[in-house]
Design a protein that fits this description.
Length: 324
């Protein structure tokens, strides 16, 4: 029996737009173990959020899953009826979205929004749900939980709103939490507080996490393993220490070089170019137009993820990635 809680196999997702078909995910393979924190890292437009939304089937109406499988505890989520998916969302799999205030209903009190999880999935009375919500608010360090319960999102600071969203996501002790840049809208001081709280809660609950971020340094703080994503493909995956000490893919190396060093006064490194438009992505390796190490097969053939050492996979012809 697999020890993996989640396994994504050859996932392809397209978006049909007036300008053409956006090939957002192109054969994504990813897994998450029980109790593991997996950092999913890459620039904006890499496909990180689409991967998370695909898992809980919250994609926009113009999205089409062209192929692949998403196994959660042995069941393919892509084959389940929506009635079953609705039972899984919030209870077994939760998601924290990028903008906390945008994730909250502006015309509902904060406490009532968290209480919905208890009312729907555990069929508690309103009084029982209220008590559970107040308990969650205390656990996430919200001051004066009674007042926060009655507050509307616009009455909360960014840090408070994020703690409410974390309460909502962890209320039912989900087996998998997808955290999509949960601190990106917060200032540095509040970000550090939220990260400390986040680590404490997931360790306490034993929840598996996919932590989506563009920040390699932030991913290093919390992740057991890191998967690096570029233009809809996973290009490297390994445990966090290995990624930082022995990055193999030129894109991973570029991301690491972009991290500011304390005390460094020279010019900061930045990779040339940008993620290509995925309506008409480049042939072969999608990173090859920006890659300083590209050579003959890179612009024609697609490198596959190959294991170069135990647990360390990379999709690059420099390391023998067999073409498809």
């Amino acid at each position: 029996m697999s020890i993996m809680l989640l396994e994504i196999k050859d996932l392809y997702v397209h978006f049909h737009t007036l300008r053409g078909t956006v090939k957002a995910l192109d054969g994504v393979n990813l897994d998450v173990g029980r109790g593991e924190v997996l950092g999913l890292v890459g620039e904006t437009g890499s496909g990180k959020t689409v991967t998370g939304l695909s898992i809980i089937r919250l994609l926009e109406p113009n999205a089409e899953i062209k192929g692949g499988e998403i196994f959660f505890e042995g069941r393919d989520l892509l084959k389940l009826p929506m009635s079953e998916i609705l039972k899984i969302r919030g209870r077994d799999i939760s998601m924290i979205f990028q903008e906390p205030k945008a994730a909250l209903n502006p015309v509902m009190q904060a406490g009532d929004q968290v209480a919905e999880a208890f009312l729907v999935h555990e069929e508690l009375t309103k009084d029982e749900a209220r008590k559970r919500v107040l308990e969650m608010f205390r656990r996430v360090g919200l001051p004066d939980p009674e007042r926060i319960y009655k507050s509307y999102p616009h009455e909360l600071s960014g840090g408070m709103a994020q703690r409410v969203v974390i309460s909502m996501a962890l209320a039912l002790k989900p087996k998998l939490l997808i955290a999509d840049e949960p601190t990106s809208a917060l200032d540095v001081t509040i970000q550090a507080q939220i990260m400390d709280l986040f680590r404490e809660l997931i360790n306490e609950l034993g929840t598996s996490v996919i932590y989506i971020t563009h920040d390699m340094a932030l991913a290093a703080e919390i992740s057991d393993r890191i998967a690096v994503m570029y233009a809809g493909r996973i290009v490297e995956i390994a445990d966090t220490e290995t990624i930082f000490e022995n990055p193999l893919h030129p894109y991973t190396q570029g991301l690491l070089r972009s991290i500011p060093k304390l005390g460094y006064r020279g010019k900061l490194f930045s990779m040339k170019g940008e993620i290509p438009p995925l309506i008409n992505p480049p042939s072969g390796c999608r990173f090859h137009p920006r890659c300083p190490k590209r050579f003959e097969p890179c612009d024609k053939e697609v490198p596959q993820l190959v294991e170069v050492e135990r647990g360390h996979k990379v999709a690059c012809f420099l390391f023998g990635g067999a073409s498809s």
